[in-house]
Write a structure and sequence with these properties.
It is globular and about 50 Å long. It has about 250 residues and is an alpha/beta fold. The chain is about 55% helix and about 15% strand. Helix 1 packs across helix 7 and helix 4 runs parallel beside helix 5. Helix 2 links the parallel strand 2 and strand 3. The strands form 3 sheets. A 4-stranded parallel sheet has the order 4-5-6-9.
Length: about 250
C-alpha cells in the first residue's frame, strides 16, 4: 500500500514496486490520477492495482484505509506512508486550520496506518513500513515550522518502531529525502528558487533508495551523498546556530 501515490515520490515508489511484479493498493485524494496510474501499471507490468481514493485527514476516510490494512484480504506486506503536505511562511500568518491539517496528514495518518498494518505484520512475522520523512526534520526550521516538526516526529517514531519490531520479522524505515523534483513545493507554496539546481534529486532516485533500505531492514535512509553529509553535520550543529541560518535562507 502506497499513500500519496498519485504523484511525486509516492508515484515513483508505486512504479518501481509494480516493475518488480508487486500487486498494489494505491491511496490518494485524486481518484482520476489513481485510476490512470492503475491502468498504466496493469498494462505495463501485469500487476493488480486496487484504487482507494481517500483524504486521510478526514477521520472516516482514514478509518476506511485502516480497515483495508486490517482486513488482510489480501495482506499488505509493505506500507509506504508517503502522503504529506507543507507550507512556507511565518507560523502566525498561516491559518491554524491548515496547520492542524498538516499534523493530521504528516503525523496522525502515518501513526494510525502503521498501527493498523503492524497488527497483521507482527502476527505473520514479516512485513515492512517505509515512512517518508524529510531531511527538514533534523533541525528546527523557521518559516516551515510545523512541517519540519511533523517530520521530526515521524523520524523519531519510525526509529522507535524499528527497534520494537526488528526481531519480529518486520522492518520499519524512515526515509529522509532532501529537495526532490515533485509537485510538493508548488502545492505547499514553498519557494524553489532559493535552492541551487545540484541540490535537487529525482523522485525515482529517492524511491529506489527508500525501497532498497526497507528491504535491507535499515532504520533510516538519507538519499544522496550531499544530504548524508548534511545529516551528520546537523547532528553537531547547535539549534541556536542552525535556526538563525535557516531563518535567513527561508525567510
Amino acid at each position: 500500500m502506497v499513500t500519496g501515490a498519485s504523484s511525486g515520490i509516492g508515484r515513483a515508489i508505486a512504479v518501481r514496486l509494480a516493475a518488480d511484479g508487486t500487486d498494489l493498493v494505491v491511496v490518494a485524494r485524486r481518484k482520476d490520477r489513481l485510476e490512470a496510474l492503475a491502468e498504466e501499471l496493469t498494462a505495463t507490468h501485469g500487476v493488480s492495482v486496487d484504487v482507494l481514493a481517500a483524504d486521510v485527514t478526514d477521520p472516516a476516510q482514514l478509518a476506511a484505509v485502516e480497515e483495508r490494512l486490517r482486513s488482510g484480504r489480501p495482506p499488505v506486506d509493505l506500507l509506504v506512508n508517503n502522503a504529506g503536505v507543507g507550507a512556507q511562511g511565518a507560523f502566525a500568518d498561516i491559518p491554524i486550520d491548515f496547520q492542524e491539517s498538516q499534523i493530521r496528514l504528516n503525523v496522525l495518518a502515518p501513526v494510525r496506518l502503521s498501527h493498523a498494518a503492524l497488527e497483521g505484520m507482527v502476527g505473520r512475522g514479516r512485513g515492512g513500513i517505509l515512512n517518508v520523512s524529510s531531511i527538514a526534520g533534523l533541525q528546527p526550521m523557521p518559516n516551515v515550522a510545523t512541517y519540519a516538526a511533523t517530520k521530526a516526529y515521524l523520524s523519531s517514531f519510525s526509529h522507535a518502531l524499528h527497534e520494537e519490531v526488528r526481531h519480529r520479522g518486520v522492518a520499519v524505515t524512515a526515509l529522509l529525502p532532501g529537495f526532490t523534483r515533485t509537485e510538493f513545493h508548488e502545492a505547499s507554496g514553498i519557494n524553489r528558487t532559493v535552492v541551487p539546481g545540484p541540490a535537487w534529486m529525482s523522485a525515482d532516485t529517492v524511491a529506489r533508495a527508500g525501497l532498497r533500505a526497507v528491504a535491507r531492514g535499515r532504520a533510516q535512509c538519507v538519499p544522496g551523498l550531499g544530504y548524508r553529509v548534511l545529516s551528520v553535520i546537523s547532528g553537531f550543529t547547535p539549534w541556536s546556530v542552525s535556526r538563525r541560518v535557516l531563518a535567513a535562507v527561508l525567510g
